[in-house]
Amino acid sequence: xxxxxxxxxxxxxxxxxxxxxxxxxxxxxxxxxxxxxxxxxxxxxxxxxxxxxxxxxxxxxxxxxxxxxxxxxxxxxxxxxxxxxxxxxxxxxxxxxxxxxxxxxxxxxxxxxxxxxxxxxxxxxxxxxxxxxxxxxxxxxxxxxxxxxxxxxxxxxxxxxxxxxxxxxxxxxxxxxxxxxxxxxxxxxxxxxxxxxxxxxxxxxxx
Length: 207
Description:
- Helix content is 0%, strand content 48%.
- It is built from no helices and 23 strands.
- A hairpin with a 2-residue loop joins strand 3 (23-25) and strand 4.
- The radius of gyration is 17 Å and the shape is globular.
- It starts with a strand and ends with a strand.
């Protein structure tokens, strides 16, 4: 049995059939092929859950021999993030495009550094992330270089920082809602164009 990072759910790896050439992670499987990191539910089912081994504290695609082998990320099916969702993509120097459609973060109460130390990004769309149940958000992105970051529709609650120490040419967001204390943008490295329409600060107590 393996701890999945949720704290109350244990996932038996042997209960899920992993496709040949793929690698197991919780009730999901992953592989890098044709410069693409693909993560999907294992065993042919429509949904699966990631886990982060507390003894390793690193997703396997962030390992030194893997992290520079892919240029894009794709989620297939529905992949549930763990309750403590930290350091998802770290140090991936060749990563250019991130598509996280299908990643369900609605059960995550703590989120930090979804992207960190990725310096070749063209376009990143994080608008599909559900942060509404997150009690503690310590940066969606940290120390990245990116042409355009889309955070449309996000509800962000009690964030120590949303974007930290990054070089982003343009940040777009329609309908972003900040709740409680939110330190939105800290120590941006270079001037950045902000296109934030319909920004909701009605429940923001400290910005």
